[in-house]
Amino acid sequence: MTARSSLLKTASLAALVTGALAGTALAADTVKLGYQLPLTGETAQYGQDFRKAAEIALTEFNAAGKPFKAEIVFEDSRSDAKEGTNIARKFVDDKEIVGVLGDFTSGVSMAAAQVYKEAGLPQLSQTASHPDYTKISKYQFRNIATQAQEGPYNAKWMLSKGYKNIAVIAEQTDWGQSVVSGFTEGVKANGGTVVFSEFFNRGLKDYRSLISKLERAKPDAIYTGFFYEDGAQFLRQVQQLGIKTPVYSTSAAYSPKLIELAGDAAEGVHLTSNFLPTDPAPHIQHFVTEWKAASNGAVPGQFPAQAYDAVRIMLAAVEKAYPNPTREKVRDALAQTKDFPGVTGKTSFSADREAEKELVKVEVKGGAFVPVAD
Amino acid sequence: MIDPYYLQQLAIGLSLGMTYALMAIGFTLIFGVLNVVNFAHGEVYTLGAFAGLVLISATAPPVFAVIFAALAIGALAGFSLERVAFKPFRRFTDEASLKSRAMRESTLLSSLAVSIVVREALEIVFGSQMRSVPFEYLINTPVRVGPVILVTGDFIIFGVAAAMLAGLQYLLTRTRIGLSIRAVSNNPLGAKYVGIDTDRTIIMTFVVGSMMGAAAGILTGLYYGAIFPAMGFVPGIKAFVAMVMGGLSSIPGAVICALILGISESMATTFVSSGWSDMVAYGFLILTLIFFPNGLFGARRERV
């Protein structure tokens, strides 16, 4: 027993030493990034898409003959704030990591951000859209329009269509709360009324009680803050109950899966987006082709596109900081990002590290997302 | 005159409660009646749904073939689950081990382990995103009953749950196998001494209970139109609460409590935010444990 365990120890020690040696040998021309994202658990589908998008971006970068190679360490946060902070500590302790991507949800991104703030490690989330996230420190960046931008934009859109009394529902998360507050402010500022607002738990199966309750307030239209799984269930049950009130949503619901899961119940849903896979621009079509090749011909939604851009923005910043990129130099390079030509439009970071994005209005027509003028 | 709004909420609550009851029946048979701590029932439910989905996408079969496939996978899953997570703990046949609570409750962890492995394996094979069921298989065409709108699935689920309940009550009270299940649950050692094949009885119960779990999975999948690896978790918790409320060993008790749970949740949505409706289930669980340690319908066993 003891002989065996000491043998094991020696073996693992040897492995460690060779691993460390290999690490330093690589470090000369390899730059390491961290990516924290949910790879298992209830939100795993998003994290797995992010990893796929990141790998496409990484392969392209490493094949482009740059002066250095990049490497991304993926860590599974399970969308759990505690896991997220543990990963953040791990990334901070790894002195080779000069920049971090992720996390998926605003809640976990903000929990991890406290660690990155102390250590001075730049963090770029592809999706965290809670207004407070970038306010944590000068190290937090995001590549997504916030609900503070999107809410008022959608409020004006709905009011311009003549909907004065609007019901709002959103998932019970940091993000969902920012959906409701951003939109409600926009509606009030433009002379409309929010007649009903309520939160539901992510992953709720049966929305019929909520829908019946909502309809009692007799709204002209419903504004929703959900992702495609919840969205598909909601839309189907709206149809089942024979309700015809128009439904509007945020860019978070913009995914081909929404239409696949909801079928004809998704017809007529209006939402905003900043990525259109049908856009003929060559760099967008290039990403769509690569994505299809990696996922059995499925069309990418907005989130993978944002992750792809986030990784490329980070890599561009590292390249600018090269040679000898430090965490501080990468942060400064990120902050200078201007008109980065991504698949989700041109991205610049404002002084408070917000991505300035252009939104496109979209309607579901004939089983597809179709851009509309108003 | 009652406000049609409340009738609609009542109908929604009943149909919600039926989906919980469907899951609770098989769960209570294994966990409550046989008295075996089993936390892998939710994954049997998920496996049943995936078996149906795979068959649907492969060959477009008639609906009864889909249900049959789910039942077959359920039986297989129940058998394998028992073999992997439960049988190893029965290898000691001495009196002390058979009486030991610790031995019996260690399956809490082994069944939980199996459930995690199955769920993660499903995620690797099928991906963790929701998969849609082709529309012609869905059982949610709206049906108007007076002022209330229901869907076809509500009636199908009601029929299946009623048949399961009646069948099991008959099995447990009128047949030899039912008698032996109750004997094993009451006193495994005593059952062994009077010549009951305890191993066979336990395997049979697992097979029957898991078939019901798998049927519940595919029916709920066709009802909501979305199938994914984590789908068994929430219904598992609701079924657990219904079982504890019903007094662990009583299947009709679990069914009634599942209905109470569903109605309470949908009614609660009227008065509090929907975000709090899960509180109802946990609130009931705590209240039951504090005020009715034997459950609402159970009196037979020691405290739940």
From the 3D structure, determine the CATH topology of the largest domain in chain A: Rossmann fold
Q: Shape of chain B, please?
A: globular
Number of helices of chain A: 12
Unreliable stretches of chain B (pLDDT < 50, length at least 5) are none
- Classified by CATH, the class of the largest domain in chain A is Alpha Beta
N- and C-termini, Cα separation of chain B: 42 Å
User: What's the total number of strands of chain A?
Assistant: 14
Which pair of protein chains has the largest interface, and what are the residue counts? A-B, 33 and 33 residues
Helix content of chain B: over 70%
Oligomer: heterodimer
Rg on CA atoms of chain A, Å: 22 Å
Question: Helix/strand/pairing class of chain B, anyone?
Answer: mainly alpha
Largest sheet of chain A: 7 strands, mixed
Question: What is the helix/strand order of chain A?
Answer: HEHEHEHEEHEHEHEHEHEHHHEEEE
Family (chain B): Belongs to the binding-protein-dependent transport system permease family. LivHM subfamily.
InterPro entries (chain B): ABC_transp_permease, BCAA_transport_permease
Protein name (chain B): Branched-chain amino acid ABC transporter permease
Membrane topology (chain B): Multi-pass membrane protein
Which labels suit this protein?
heterodimer; A: 374 residues; alpha/beta; Rossmann fold; 2 domains; 7-stranded mixed sheet; 5-stranded parallel sheet; 12 helices; 14 strands; globular; B: 304 residues; mainly alpha; two-stranded antiparallel ribbon; 13 helices; 4 strands; 72% helix
Write a structural description.
The complex is a heterodimer of chains A (374) and B (304). Chain A is of the alpha/beta class and 374 residues long. Chain A has 2 domains: 24-145 and 284-347, Response regulator (Rossmann fold); 147-273, Rossmann fold (3-Layer(aba) Sandwich), CATH 3.40.50.2300. Chain A has helices at residues 2-27, 44-63, 81-93, 106-119, 147-160, 174-189, 208-216, 228-240, 256-262, 282-294, 302-321, 327-335; strands at residues 30-37, 69-76, 97-101, 123-125, 140-142, 165-171, 193-200, 221-225, 247-249, 270-273, 340-342, 345-347, 360-365, 368-371. In chain A, the strands form 3 sheets. A 7-stranded mixed β-sheet of chain A has the order 7-6-8-9-10-13-14, covered by helices on one side. Chain A has a 5-stranded parallel β-sheet with strand order 2-1-3-4-5, sandwiched between helices. In chain A, strand 1, helix 2 (44-63) and strand 2 (69-76) form a beta-alpha-beta unit. The radius of gyration of chain A is 22 Å and the shape is globular. Chain B has one domain (12-232). Chain B has 304 residues and is mostly helical. Helices cover 72% and strands 4% of the residues of chain B. Chain B has helices spanning 4-33, 41-59, 63-86, 95-99, 101-105, 107-126, 152-174, 176-186, 188-193, 198-224, 233-245, 251-271, 278-291; strands at residues 131-132, 142-145, 148-151, 226-227.
